Amino acid sequence: MKPTFISETTKLLNEFKKTHPETEQAQQAGRARLWDKKIDPEQQKEFKEAKVNQKPYVYYNK
Predict the structure, then answer these.
(1) How far apart are CA 17 and CA 7, in angstroms?
(2) Residue ranges making up the domain that contains 13
(3) Cα angle vertex 32, ends 28, 27, to 5°?
(4) Any residues with CB less than 8 A from the CB of 24 and at least 6 apart, and which?
(5) Is residue 16 part of a domain?
(6) pLDDT at site 62
(7) pLDDT at 1 over 70
(8) Higher local confidence (pLDDT), 3 or 14
(9) What keywords were assigned to this record (predicted)?
(10) How many domains are there within the chain?
């Protein structure tokens, strides 16, 4: 069986994670803070209903 190819970038990241084990936990905490949020369907519905359509050219005052 042929050995699998591992790029230099992957090797660098793997080595960095070995020397800095707290990085993985910090990444997961950052993701949870920014992306992993529960979405309230009722609130989303209200946002869509409250949306005001924008004119095609916003700087034209007519």
Answers:
(1) 15
(2) 8-50
(3) 25
(4) 17
(5) yes
(6) 63
(7) no
(8) 14
(9) Transferase
(10) 1
Locus of tokens 């005052």? 61
Domain-embedded: residue 55: no
User: What DSSP string runs through 24-38?
Assistant: HHHHHHHHHHHT---
Cβ–Cβ < 8 Å for 23, 17: yes
Residue type, 33: R
- The answer to the question of residue 30 being in a domain is yes
Please state the rounded mean pLDDT for residues 3-17: 93
Q: What is the pLDDT of residues 24-42, one digit of tens each?
A: 999 999 999 988 888 899 9
| 35 and 29 Cβ atoms separated by less than 8 Å | no
Question: How many Å apart are CA 49 and CA 54, to the nearest integer?
Answer: 14
41 within domain boundaries: yes
